[in-house]
Write a structure and sequence with these properties.
With about 80 residues, the chain is α+β, with helices and mostly antiparallel strands. About 50% of the residues lie in helices and about 15% in strands. The N and C termini lie far apart (about 40 Å).
Length: about 80
């Protein structure tokens, strides 16, 4: 189920669509998969994403990617 949810997460950001895709991939009921998708989404929003990148000569280093919400105001004319 984890792999199906991971694949669905890569396709869309909508939780309902993710659950529908994952359920169709593994042949499980939508309700069960939807509950797991919600749990996964909550866990992902709590912690930043960590990626391990191989540098020169195989040295590993971690990179933390955090999403920040961009606030735009109605009178902001910049693009």
């Amino acid at each position: 189920m984890e792999e199906a949810i991971f694949a669905a997460t890569g396709i869309t950001d909508d939780l309902d669509s993710q659950a529908e895709i994952a359920a169709s991939l593994i042949g499980m009921p939508f309700d069960i998969v939807h509950a797991e998708v919600k749990k996964t989404a909550r866990a992902v929003t709590r912690s930043p994403t960590t990626r391990v990148i191989a540098g020169e000569q195989g040295a590993l280093r971690s990179v933390v990617v955090e999403r920040r919400a961009v606030r735009r105001f109605g009178n902001d004319k910049r693009l």
